[in-house]
Specification:
alpha/beta; Rossmann fold; 2 domains; 8-stranded mixed β-sheet; 9 helices; 26% helix; globular; binds aspartic acid; asparaginase activity; Asparaginase_C; L-asparaginase_C; Asparaginase/glutaminase-like; asparaginase
Length: 342
């Protein structure tokens, strides 16, 4: 009998599976079978691996919500058959995809680990092998016949993070990701150390529910000294715009000029959802802490607390597409799957 955990490896593209185009010198995605061939070590792992490849692997800068739906659907169709899932993904938008999937795959009780690399798998100094092999090992980790990790995570350069807490912070370093507001969930050294106190576990009786609708009527607006009224007005008047993530200063502060607050207030009164996140690389929004945020709270701006921009925009896309949201502010300010503080 084969008791080895079964892992489905889903290949979407990214540097990990790219080769240099000899003519242009640019990196482009190549065939997935060749990728597996380049890592014979995969055969040594204590798990069985099956693969699924996107028909046209992409650079993750081309990632779109339809592809999140495709990834979620592949997981849904194969959920019973496999013990864990590893998604190979370009690092550029990996935090967005990890965040989106965490909302779309409600009640997952199996590991879904996104990983990729900074250098292609064929490169001598590649980080791809370690990332891929350890991501698979983590997806295959079991205790009492149950997966140790039961959520959407991102594995990169020896660290496992909650996916919806991450941001890409370096285009060069192997250590390309950070989880600014919560510690990493596991670290790979000589041993794999898992911080079990941080892991999310869903009620065993709840079935996996896959949500496939995401609104695209959203945008991210970063506040900066000198932002003009005509700019804010033009953005807030975009036809069909349903929500924006407003990147403010510090603990959620923004200009107090009346045109700024009035323009926002008018849009909110017409139904626009405005989410306040900080443009600082860590910390939380506390509207009302300074005078410069008190009024934002009063006009109905929603607090993103300590959420990342990546998780905020995908949570907004997700919640706007849900039919049964009664109180949007309450729904956004309540954590769904560990993406923000309570
Ligand atoms: N441009 C690449 C991508 O995101 C970078 C990478 O994979 O690291 O697909």
């Amino acid at each position: 009998m084969n008791n080895k955990p079964a892992i489905l490896l889903i290949y979407t593209g990214g540097t990990i599976g790219m080769v240099k185009d000899f003519k242009t010198g640019a990196l482009r995605a190549f065939n997935f079978d060749q990728l597996v061939e380049r890592i014979p070590e995969l055969h040594l792992l204590e798990c069985s691996i099956e693969t699924y490849s996107f028909e046209v692997p992409i650079d993750s800068s081309d990632m779109r919500p339809e592809m999140w739906v495709q990834m979620a659907s592949v997981i849904e169709e194969n959920y019973k058959k496999f013990d864990g899932f590893v998604i190979l993904h370009g690092s550029d938008t990996m935090s967005y995809s990890a965040s989106a999937l965490s909302f779309m795959l409600e009640n997952t009780r199996k590991p879904i680990i996104l990983t990729g690399s900074q250098l292609p798998i064929g490169d001598l100094r590649t980080d791809a092998k370690e990332n891929l092999i350890t991501a698979i090992q983590i997806a295959a980790l079991q205790e009492n016949n149950k997966p140790v990790i039961q959520e959407v995570c991102l594995y990169f350069e020896y660290k496992l993070y909650r996916g919806n807490r991450t941001s890409k912070v370096s285009s060069e370093l192997f250590n390309a990701f950070t989880s600014p507001n919560i510690p990493h969930l596991a670290e790979s050294g000589v041993n794999l150390r898992v911080n079990k106190a941080l892991l999310e576990y869903k009620n065993e009786t709840l079935p996996l529910t896959v949500h496939k609708e995401m609104s695209r009527n959203v945008m991210i607006l970063k506040v900066f000294p000198g932002i003009q009224q005509k700019v804010l007005k033009a953005i807030l008047n975009i036809e069909d715009l349903e929500g924006i993530v407003l990147e403010t200063y510090g603990s959620g502060n923004a200009p107090t000029e009346s045109w700024f607050l009035n323009t926002l207030a008018e849009a909110i009164a017409k139904g626009l959802k405005v989410i306040n996140v900080t443009q600082c690389s860590s910390g939380s929004v506390h509207m009302g802490k300074y005078e410069t945020s008190t009024e934002l709270k009063e006009i109905g701006v929603i607090s993103g607390k300590d959420i990342t921009t990546e998780a905020a925009i995908t949570k907004l896309m997700f919640l706007l597409a849900q039919k049964n949201v009664v109180d949007f502010k309450e729904a956004f300010e309540t954590p769904i799957c560990g993406e923000m503080e309570l």
